[in-house]
Design a protein that fits this description.
This protein starts with 5 loop residues before the first strand and ends in a 7-residue tail after the last helix. Strand 4, helix 3 and strand 5 form a beta-alpha-beta unit. The longest helix is centred in the last third of the chain and has 14 residues. The chain has a single domain, classed as Metal-dependent hydrolases (TIM Barrel). Strands 1, 2, 3, 4, 5, 6, 7 and 8 form an eight-stranded mixed beta sheet that branches. By secondary structure, the chain is an alpha/beta fold. 30% of the residues lie in helices and 17% in strands. Helix 4 runs parallel beside helix 5 and helix 5 packs across helix 6. The structure holds zinc ion (ZN) (2 copies). One zinc ion binds next to loops.
Length: 241
């Protein structure tokens, strides 16, 4: 199994339906040998989600806890067919990384074309870094176009471990198609746990298993290399963090 150094999609109690604190997540990450942890709570439109102030106040958030690098980001909802996000750029600029995604609680979804257009519009924002769980069958997408645009803009496609176990049933086949597209275009994927409880932190088995099964190039899995991960955060421009 490939060694993974960081988990960039971890929720805390601030998400409204997360069950662990930052510190609890850190402790599990340390125990599992991770060097990097990315906290990415849901954005304000999610029922029970944090207010924009939670993200704006990130100056309080440490860069390192007990020897592990911690990055403070958000999983930001796409709220409409114009691809609008529910956190303003001035807030996104303060974050270490920005994930975008669709959730049925926020975005009602439309045709494949409408969903694709919404996501492509969201990707126009240079502050967006990662597309989370695009394989969700609840929101059909033109994978060809989505991957083309993601890779062309130097952004990263997430292969979400929870999509294979806890949620978004039926994602696996779609994720395989998406990963194949990314490979073809020489782009990046990141494997993430999407942990909502601390013990899920660092769980990538099924996502990694799929990538290995299809012989996805290891050097294009962003978090399979500590150097690539650190570079990913260092190279992000236009941010205040
Ligand atoms: Zn959630
Ligand atoms: Zn999500």
């Amino acid at each position: 199994m490939v060694r993974i150094w960081g988990d960039l999609h971890v929720h805390t109690i601030a998400s409204g339906h997360g069950y662990s604190t930052v510190l609890e997540n850190v402790h599990v990450a340390l125990r599992k040998g991770l060097k990097v942890l990315g906290i990415a709570d849901h954005s304000p439109s999610m029922p029970g989600g944090p207010s924009p102030l939670y993200f704006e106040a990130r100056g309080h958030f440490p860069k390192e806890i007990e020897g592990i690098r911690v990055y403070f980001g958000a999983e930001v909802d796409i709220v409409d067919f114009d691809g609008r996000l529910d956190l303003e750029d001035k807030v996104l600029r303060k974050l270490d990384f920005v994930i975008v995604s669709f959730h049925p609680q926020v975005f009602r979804g439309g045709t494949r074309e409408e969903n694709t257009e919404a996501l492509l519009r969201a990707l126009e924002n240079p502050l967006v870094d990662i597309v989370a769980h695009p394989g969700n069958p609840r929101f059909p997408l033109d994978y060809n176009r989505v991957v083309e645009e993601t890779v062309a803009r130097g952004k990263v496609i997430e292969i979400n471990n929870s999509s294979f176990s806890v949620s978004r049933k039926g994602s696996k086949e779609n994720c395989r198609v998406i990963a194949r597209e990314v490979e073809k275009r020489g782009g990046w994927v990141v494997v993430s746990s999407d942990a909502h409880f601390c013990e899920e932190v660092g769980e990538f088995r099924e996502a990694l298993g799929m990538l290995q099964e299809m012989q996805f190039p290891e050097d294009k899995i962003l978090n399979a290399s500590c150097e690539n991960l650190i570079r990913f955060f260092e190279n992000r421009e236009g941010r205040e963090s």
